[in-house]
User: Which sequence fits this backbone?
């Protein structure tokens, strides 16, 4: 843990840099970059609590509404009636990725690794069924978080983010934003990238929300696809990345390439990572991704007091073999 390789120094799997084997034998590591959340780093992060301000980062379970990416809207049944001694909740067709979420390592595989490497193309060569949110839940996710307020930074540059368009956030904008805030990143940080997308979504009328949920209707800002983004994130040596956008990366995937070109690249196992950076970050680098988080209140507080770091605590669902989970996350300052 005293030295992690740079992106260019990582061993290659299926032709791209990979952290498989960095923290344990291939086929055995369920944590990837979460391995950086050592006891010493947890202790250091706890020292960041000065005023006792707590910020809940889960968005409403009912948003987005309608759900994006053709996911189902859950049904909430309350047992009993007004005469009952008590009630229970029953959720039907609840998708763990319909609102604030962690993408776990079962969510995305790398198709080239599936063909060319041990295992099924999921992180670390671990078999599909051996991954699951229960691994992360068993240890919790606790450490130092740094807020990268890219929405506020872009506004200060006179280049406001477009929330209804595939506005690409280039890799070099992340360290530039952190430098402008006076924020120094450290190995093992959880990076919280706030754009303002969830707050924008809440202001939209029903017809706009419905259009976003239709197949092919979503356009949203996010990180650029390709290895330049993967290299930037890896070289920060992050433990995890959480954002308030629908997909972490720009959507549609591969923007601003013409859609037909991006679709052709997505269909090529050797080149899909050029337009869909999920296939690098999750299965190859082992970087957990959080999406649709509510980061506005935290980011405003950071802007007001000039402190962009905090204690971060997340308790994923203890769901055996689960693909994803609400983050159940709080930031404490």
Assistant:
């Amino acid at each position: 843990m005293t030295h992690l390789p740079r992106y260019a120094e990582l061993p290659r799997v299926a032709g791209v840099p990979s952290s498989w084997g960095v923290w344990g034998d291939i086929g055995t590591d369920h944590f990837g970059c979460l391995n950086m959340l050592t006891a010493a780093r947890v202790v250091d992060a706890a020292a960041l609590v000065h005023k006792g301000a707590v910020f809940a980062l889960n968005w409403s379970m009912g948003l987005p509404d309608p759900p994006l990416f053709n996911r189902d809207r859950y049904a909430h049944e309350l047992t009993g009636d007004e005469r009952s001694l008590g009630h229970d909740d029953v959720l039907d067709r609840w998708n763990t990725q319909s609102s604030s979420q962690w993408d776990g390592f079962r969510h995305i595989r790398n198709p080239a690794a599936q063909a060319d490497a041990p295992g099924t193309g999921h992180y670390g060569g671990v078999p599909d069924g051996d991954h699951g949110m229960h691994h992360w839940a068993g240890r919790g996710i606790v450490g130092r978080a740094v807020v990268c307020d890219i929405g506020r930074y872009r506004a200060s540059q006179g280049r406001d983010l477009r929330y209804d368009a595939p506005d690409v956030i280039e890799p070099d904008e992340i360290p530039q934003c952190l430098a402008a805030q006076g924020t120094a990143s450290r190995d093992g940080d959880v990076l919280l990238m706030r754009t303002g997308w969830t707050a924008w979504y809440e202001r939209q009328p029903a017809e706009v929300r419905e259009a976003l949920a239709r197949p092919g209707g979503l356009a949203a800002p996010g990180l650029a696809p390709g290895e330049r983004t993967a290299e930037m994130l890896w070289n920060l040596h992050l433990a995890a990345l959480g954002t308030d956008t629908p997909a972490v990366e720009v959507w549609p995937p591969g923007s601003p390439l013409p859609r037909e070109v991006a679709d052709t690249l997505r269909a090529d196992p050797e080149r899909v990572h050029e337009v869909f950076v999920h296939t690098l970050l999750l299965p190859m680098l082992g970087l957990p991704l959080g999406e649709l988080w509510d980061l506005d209140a935290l980011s405003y507080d950071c802007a007001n007091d000039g402190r962009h770091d905090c204690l971060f605590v997340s308790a994923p669902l203890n769901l055996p073999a689960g693909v994803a989970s609400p983050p159940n996350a709080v930031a404490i300052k």
Remarks:
- Residues 43 and 165 are 41 Å apart (CA to CA).
- The longest strand covers residues 141-149.
- Residues 296-305 form the longest helix (10 residues).
